[in-house]
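Sequence design from tokenized structure. All designs in this work follow the same two-part layout: the structure record, then the generated sequence. An example of the structure record is given first.
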């Protein structure tokens, strides 16, 4: 983990450079050193039905949810989340300067007894780093 979900209003679709934003947040989370490469997943979901503030059609939003595994110290979680949020703010700065935009990020720590996982991604990542196709 983390699983990073970027939700954004449809009215900013063509002004947000979504593939670059996904890359930036994904890489920033990994660079914190807090999260394993094989457990990091970043995805985006466009929202077509929404009302923001006074309902003006120019109002836009980007909301990032980070779901993380339990057990990290509060300061570690805060610093990692701040790094990802700062990357979001940096990426959206040109749009923010031109249009009404709300940016938010939240972290949810998943309870271990209620978080189920089954994957072999860590093995494949390790193999690729060693120059192999498969583990």
């Amino acid at each position: 983990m983390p699983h990073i979900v970027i939700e954004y209003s449809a009215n900013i679709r063509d002004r947000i450079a979504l593939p670059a934003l996904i890359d930036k947040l994904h890489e920033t989370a990994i660079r914190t050193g807090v999260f394993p490469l094989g457990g990091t997943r970043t995805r985006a979901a466009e929202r077509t039905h929404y009302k923001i503030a006074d309902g003006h059609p120019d109002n836009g939003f980007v909301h990032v949810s980070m779901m993380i595994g339990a057990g990290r110290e509060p300061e570690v979680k805060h610093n990692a989340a701040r790094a990802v949020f700062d990357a979001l703010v940096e990426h959206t700065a040109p749009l923010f300067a031109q249009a009404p935009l709300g940016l938010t990020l939240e972290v949810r720590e998943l309870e271990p007894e209620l978080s189920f996982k089954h994957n072999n991604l860590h093995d494949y990542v390790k193999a690729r780093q060693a120059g192999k196709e498969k583990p």
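Helices lie at 18-31, 74-96, 121-129. We note this feature because it recurs in several other targets discussed in the main text.
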